[in-house]
């Protein structure tokens, strides 16, 4: 699916995986400062637990609702803006990634994401709200 010679041209600048990436390991790597996400809920939870802010780029199903929640309610993501034909330009991708990394709004999102990571850790610890709720359910 990639253009002829793409892997050779980009081998010094990036990594292309031919299978699923170890998503949790990637999100928890110290060099990851943000993540462009399709807004699937599993990824959202993994990103929050890793303290990684998002650029929200939903594709289908509940992902568009998740974007609204992430951007407007939780303020843990910047939205990827689509054109009227539902395409996203490379300039838009660049603007949103730079916005997440360099803007004042991006700074606030990163701070809120770290606060949510701390809250998630507390909920998952012994006696935390997630552990207590699961115990009650069982």
UniProtKB/TrEMBL annotation:
Tell me the superkingdom of the source.
Answer: Eukaryota
Pfam hit, one: UDPGT
Q: What InterPro entries does its record include? A: UDP-glycosyltransf_plant, UDP_glucos_trans
Q: Name one GO molecular function term.
A: UDP-glucosyltransferase activity
Report keywords, A-Z.
Glycosyltransferase, Transferase
Family note? Belongs to the UDP-glycosyltransferase family.
Q: What is this protein called?
A: UDP-glycosyltransferase 88A1-like
Task: Give the originating organism.
Answer: Populus alba x Populus x berolinensis
